[in-house]
Specification:
It contains 4 helices and 5 strands, in the order E-H-E-E-H-E-H-E-H. The chain is globular and about 30 Å long. It has 112 residues and is of the alpha/beta class.
């Protein structure tokens, strides 16, 4: 089973689960800190959670890093973009379906 981990105290884990409902082999869980492991395929992180080369090294299977709010100064874009299989989303927010800036989650995640 693959995991998507939400590390954002105000993030809506139920909305993330609903957005990934088409992927039954993916679980969504909340965490207080960045996880490690080869079963983590996605990170949904708040602005207080930095993601760089060291964090990515502990997550070899990560395919997506999403900021749960606008802004991405906490994300090391060069390191994230250097990983060919990884996609970066600027935003993934519940209730943004009518927002033209919202990205298509299914297209970003692909098939696990």
């Amino acid at each position: 089973m693959s995991r998507v981990v939400l590390i954002d105290e105000v993030g809506d884990v139920d909305a993330a689960r609903a957005a990934l409902a088409a992927h039954p082999d993916v679980t969504v869980q909340r965490a207080d800190t960045l996880p490690a492991g080869d079963d983590v395929v996605g990170l949904l992180v708040g602005t207080e959670v930095p993601v760089g080369a060291r964090e990515l090294a502990a997550l070899p299977a990560v395919r997506i890093v999403a900021a749960t709010a606008t802004g991405y100064d906490h994300l090391a874009l060069a390191e994230i973009q250097a990983r060919a299989q990884l996609r970066l989303l600027e935003r993934l927010r519940a209730g943004d379906a009518a927002d033209p800036e919202r990205h298509d989650v299914d297209a970003a995640l692909g098939r696990f």
